[in-house]
Amino acid sequence: MKECKILIVDDNVDDVEILSEAFQHTGVDSVHHEHTAMKAFIYLEGIHTPAKLPKLIVIDAFLPGISGLLFSRFKKNGIVQGYSSYCRMYFEIGKRS
Q1: Domain positions in the chain
Q2: CA gap 30, 3 in Å, rounded
Q3: Residue 66 — pLDDT band, cuts 50, 70, 90?
């Protein structure tokens, strides 16, 4: 089976823990998390080999600072270099009023 890596970006520690455990129980090899979009950008920019990039990004749409929605627009427009050929996806976690 191909290696599967997931990046979770969420400021809620409980959400990160629940998602991490759920993904690991389904056989995901590696789950990395960051608590802000800016830290996620820095993490992704530090990956220089396309094969090491996460296959899925799960992001809270309502992060403080740079929101998850803005993050996804940056990703879609190729602002984070080297990631454009990979699956880009975000999920809204814990929709807030």
Answers
A1: 13-97
A2: 8
A3: confident
